[in-house]
Amino acid sequence: MIPGMPGESQVYLNGEFTRADEAKISVLDRGFIFGDGIYEVVPVYNGKPFRMTEHLNRLDRSLKALSIPQPKSRAQWEALVDELSRRSGLSDCLVYLQVTRGVYKRDHAFPKTAIEPTVFGMATEFKRPGSQVREHGMRTISIVDERWLHCEIKSTSLLGNVLARQRAVEAGVDEVVQFRDGFLTEGSSSNIWVVSGGKLMAPPKNNLILEGVRYGFMAELAEEIGIPFESRRITQDEVVQADELLLTSASKEVLPIVEMDGRAIGAGVPGPIYAKLRAAYDARIAAL
Q: Up-side HSE of residue 135: CA atoms within 13 Å toward CB?
């Protein structure tokens, strides 16, 4: 039995659907040995995938960055997401997709001959953020970003993110806010947004952050409801002095950060820009 997952849960592995506790991969799979693979997480609301095109575009970019052959067509990926969602029996779920380079002898270099990528998928329950965190916000701590310099790749090599997340757990807070050389990057598994003077700001899309699918979505929402948006380098002092801080991810959607390092952000309560973006976000979901 896999801890935290019912044994009867259906997963997809290399062309077949099977119980989660019966799925097997080779110990020589490069994803297992080296973390040599990529992944995506697609939120599904009431059986309907959200921002599917954007998620599959990022999957394409990650595969290309690691020179892993694309194992499926766009239509096949869409069909797999739909089937995993259907088999889960869940109205709302998160569909996890993973592709590794495949099975080969243990050698740091890429295989010299073509090998078949390993493709894995599963659907897990998605509980949307509740009223408590929406209305009262999240607490964070700041830490130095010590991850590698290709954070733009949605790689399964997530040890840096795991360690950052553990820092939050040990501090008894909800998330970390990371800084590299005095500039904002992101959370352990989320994008961070700064509101100052009525303007929404985010770090630039480069190799220092993973461009969350909600990055483009938030920019769209801001334009739609008339909130100025700017993408640029943001100093730690600007974050500390922000009127509001927000956090976005597939599972957390958009949430307010009201505290960092024990100090209130702005008034210490969710702010008006968050409220407008939250309402616009919910409206898009309802429109599905």
A: 3
- Alpha carbon distance, N-terminus to C-terminus of the chain: 35
pLDDT tens, residue by residue, 91-127:
999 999 999 999 999 999 999 999 999 999 999 999 9
For 218-271, give the DSSP string.
HHHHHHHHT--EEE---BHHHHHT-SEEEEEETTTEEEEEEEETTEESTTSS--
By annotation, the residues acting in catalysis are 154
- Identify the residue whose tokens are 């952050």: 209
Cα 31–Cα 164–Cα 30 angle in degrees, nearest 5: 5
Q: What is the mean pLDDT of residues 185-196?
A: 98
pTM attached to this predicted model:
0.95
Separation between Cα atoms, residue 261 and residue 30, nearest integer Å: 39
User: 246: closest CA among 225, 226, 219?
Assistant: 219
